[in-house]
């Protein structure tokens, strides 16, 4: 940089009128008397004014712009009060920039601006004050003392403030000088400084400064406090970082670097797992414990496994739910034949879910014999809603810990089946099927798993389900629980109360044929690696399998037999004996062997003392033959066939009823004391119990003592009383289907079961003749004939 104090000496300075000075407008800078400051000037008029003052050796006036954004300010854009200044130095840089160093002299007020000059020129009026006299006032002196104290504190908080400035301020005795000095360096807005410049009363100026300094002091104190707090935090982080780096170095030397990396991976996984805040804090606390352990410690592996379980659970992951009722109806119809009542209830559930997403839906429980499609219904529901499907098998579970999990203190501890299934699904809004809930056991020492399920299946409680292994609550309220069962007798009442029961009856022969042709044939063809054009099976062949090779409520064995037929065909094709095989009814016996089931009703009931009853079993309905015979004796009743207590009592009641009505039926009363009566129910290895065989036992005994056979096409069920009334029984749908499959034509049912007429499949209602019994006399007339009863 070059330096000069005489710029453009070739030009003479202009002659300005007396009492006028060149004016330099300044932005955001206020000069106070006695203060020296540097200024950069760039506008042509400001440069010309500075050069004029320098050449004419006269002061220059500095006025603050009202709006710093104006590049060419007019007189109206400037404040009327400013400070005259002497230019101590003028410097021009090599890049053309101009800098001046000025010292403030005294305040002035503009009287008017003069025109006709290349720069602003103003006639000014110096502002005189009586500050020296004011210094004698005690209130002014008190303000000076307080101001010096605050300035001392302020300068201590400003690390960049030179120590000379502190001493200089303390040595000033003139209040006006002190006020101007402090106003010059205090960090406040230019407009505020201008107000201080225009404040002529020293006491008032000191008061304003005290307010500004006190405010600034509070700001600096707060800033320092925040800075120290931040520095402390940064120091702690820096310390932690250094310690971690040292730990990594030590681990690297010990060959344990991978372990440290694993800890960081776990920490990152915990942050990204979406855990609730409470669970996240617990996980990080356990991670710190893991960091302090060596991997050779026994607890290290257990704790790491525990953290991995926490990380892998879907705390916030949900699959997008599709609640399209039409699509759901189509999927259910595609996957399942008939079951209209069940499908309607599922669609109702989905419709309510769509209209009230936050509502707590019921826990559905499908009840029915094996093989009717309970589990596949759950899969169809998951498919219709777009949710993940998981199945939890509860058959044989006898330990409460299998539901609620083991505590982590045990070796080999794991979460319960519920949490395991949630992890497997990968979404907390999955469809979870609790299969075979009626097969839950109860060990002598391991608690009751059914009781553990009470919380799981209660919508009011499962939002905070705590697995013993996890030790933290997990929200199960988004899970759609579906249970399946064959029977309800073994399910505890409190658990049963939490579920909505949907009964799924067995299938008729026509239903089975339809299901086989629509689903089972295709599935077994794929399982055997066959194509439809290679193997064809006729409807009559399937019907033959249904009638003579299976006897079940569902279609599981039917599918198994169809698979056996296709495997036989696969052997023929694989050996090259045929390219296309058509399987008809005549081929079934050659493939599957002799028929396993025959219509033995007519054969068995062709002699007196045999009646056909209807029974309910966990796998559906079945026909039951009641055989009675008499032998010489002394009136004993012998019961065989693995009968339960209730069925034995039914036989005793039936014999008593026959004795009581012997006169009406023409039976000699002596016969009861001269012979023993033996009642036998075949399939002696199968346990049988219940009161529903009462009517059949009574009819068999009447047939025995009257020596008249029972009609072979009649089957019956119902409990009897000693007054001869026929009482209602359960399992009507299953029993009717069993009668239909066995070739029965007439079914006798208790009249009080007539309310279940709508539940009986339509095909059975069309093919069977129903007789509704009020008393045993009607049963005798229908099964044996009216001639038995005397008028």
Automatic annotation (TrEMBL):
GO terms for cellular component: cytoplasm. Induction: By heat shock. Residues 605-786 form the Lon proteolytic domain. InterPro entries: AAA+_ATPase, ATPase_AAA_core, Lon_bac, Lon_bac/euk-typ, Lon_lid, Lon_proteolytic, Lon_Prtase, Lon_prtase_N. It is an enzyme of class 3 (hydrolase). One of its GO terms (biological process) is protein quality control for misfolded or incompletely synthesized proteins. CDD domains: RecA-like_Lon (cd19500). ATP binds at residues 368-375. Homohexamer. Organized in a ring with a central cavity. PANTHER family: ATP DEPENDENT LON PROTEASE FAMILY MEMBER. This is Lon protease.
């Amino acid at each position: 940089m070059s330096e000069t104090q005489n710029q453009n000496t070739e030009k003479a300075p202009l002659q300005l009128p007396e009492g006028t000075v060149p004016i330099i407008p300044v932005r955001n800078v206020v000069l106070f008397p006695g203060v020296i400051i540097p200024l950069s000037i760039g506008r042509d008029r400001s440069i010309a004014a500075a050069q004029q003052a320098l050449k004419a050796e006269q002061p220059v006036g500095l006025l603050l712009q009202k709006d710093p954004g104006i590049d060419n300010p007019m007189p109206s854009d400037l404040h009327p009060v400013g400070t005259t200044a002497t230019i101590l130095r003028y410097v021009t840089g090599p890049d053309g920039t101009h800098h001046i160093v000025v010292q403030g002299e005294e305040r002035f007020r503009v009287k008017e601006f003069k025109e006709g000059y290349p720069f602003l020129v103003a006639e000014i009026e110096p502002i005189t004050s009586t500050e020296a006299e004011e210094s004698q006032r005690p209130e002014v002196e008190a303000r000076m003392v307080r101001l010096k104290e605050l300035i001392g504190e302020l300068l201590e908080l400003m690390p960049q403030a030179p120590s000379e400035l502190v001493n200089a301020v303390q040595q000033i005795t003139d209040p006006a000088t002190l006020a101007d000095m402090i106003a010059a360096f205090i960090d406040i807005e230019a407009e505020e400084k201008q107000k201080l410049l225009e404040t002529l009363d020293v006491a008032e100026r000191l008061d304003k400064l005290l307010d500004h300094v006190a405010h600034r002091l509070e700001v600096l104190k707060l800033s320092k406090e925040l800075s120290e707090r931040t520095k402390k935090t940064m120091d702690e982080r820096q310390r932690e970082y250094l310690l971690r780096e040292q730990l990594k170095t030590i681990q690297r030397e010990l060959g344990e670097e991978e372990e440290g990396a694993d800890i960081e991976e776990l920490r990152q996984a915990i942050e990204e797992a979406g855990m609730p805040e409470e669970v996240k804090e617990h996980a990080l606390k356990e991670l710190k414990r893991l960091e302090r352990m060596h991997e050779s410690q026994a607890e290290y592996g257990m704790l790491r496994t525990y953290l991995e379980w926490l990380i892998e659970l879907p705390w916030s992951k949900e699959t997008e739910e599709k609640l399209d009722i039409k699509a759901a109806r189509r999927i259910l119809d595609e996957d399942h034949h008939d079951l209209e009542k069940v499908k309607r209830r599922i669609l109702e559930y989905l419709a309510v879910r769509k209209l009230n997403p936050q509502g707590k839906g019921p826990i559905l429980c499908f009840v029915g014999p094996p093989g009717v499609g309970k589990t596949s219904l759950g899969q169809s529901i998951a498919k219709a809603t777009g949710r993940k499907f998981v199945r939890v098998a509860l058959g044989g579970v006898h330990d409460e810990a299998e539901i609620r999990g083991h505590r982590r203190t045990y070796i080999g501890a794991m979460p319960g089946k519920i949490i395991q299934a949630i992890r497997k699904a990968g979404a907390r809004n999955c469809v979870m099927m609790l299969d075979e809930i009626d097969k839950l056991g109860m060990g002598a020492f391991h608690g009751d798993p059914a009781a553990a399920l009470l919380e799981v299946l209660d919508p009011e409680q499962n939002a905070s389900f705590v697995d013993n292994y996890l030790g933290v609550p997990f929200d199960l309220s988004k899970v759609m629980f579906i249970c399946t069962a064959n029977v309800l007798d073994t399910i505890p009442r409190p658990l049963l109360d939490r579920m909505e029961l949907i009964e799924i009856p067995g299938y008729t022969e026509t239903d089975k044929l339809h299901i086989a042709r629509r689903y089972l044939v295709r599935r077994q063809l794929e399982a055997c690696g066959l194509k439809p054009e290679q193997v064809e099976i006729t409807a009559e062949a399937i019907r033959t399998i249904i009638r003579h090779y299976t006897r079940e409520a569902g279609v599981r064995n039917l599918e198994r037999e169809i698979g056996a037929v296709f495997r036989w065909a696969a052997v023929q094709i694989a050996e090259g004996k045929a390219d296309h095989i058509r399987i008809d009814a005549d081929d079934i016996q050659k493939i599957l062997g002799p028929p396993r089931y025959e219509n033995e009703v007519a054969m068995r009931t062709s002699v007196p003392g045999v009646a056909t009853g209807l029974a309910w079993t966990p796998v559906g309905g079945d026909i039951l033959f009641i055989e009675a015979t008499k032998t010489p004796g002394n009136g004993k009743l012998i019961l065989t066939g693995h009968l339960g207590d209730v069925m034995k009592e039914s036989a005793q009641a039936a014999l008593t009823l026959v004795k009581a009505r012997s006169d009406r039926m023409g039976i000699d009363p002596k016969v009861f004391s001269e012979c023993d009566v033996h009642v036998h129910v075949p399939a002696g290895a199968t346990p049988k119990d219940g009161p529903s065989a009462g009517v059949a036992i009574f009819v068999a005994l009447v047939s025995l003592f009257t020596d008249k056979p029972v009609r072979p096409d009649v089957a019956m069920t119902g409990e009897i009383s000693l007054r001869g009334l026929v009482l209602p029984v359960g399992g009507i749908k299953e029993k009717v289907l069993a009668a239909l499959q066995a070739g029965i034509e007439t079914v006798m049912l208790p009249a009080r079961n007539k309310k279940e007429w709508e539940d009986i499949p339509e095909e059975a209602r069309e093919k069977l003749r129903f007789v509704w019994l009020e008393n045993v006399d009607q049963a005798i007339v229908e099964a044996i004939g009216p001639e038995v009863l005397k008028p």
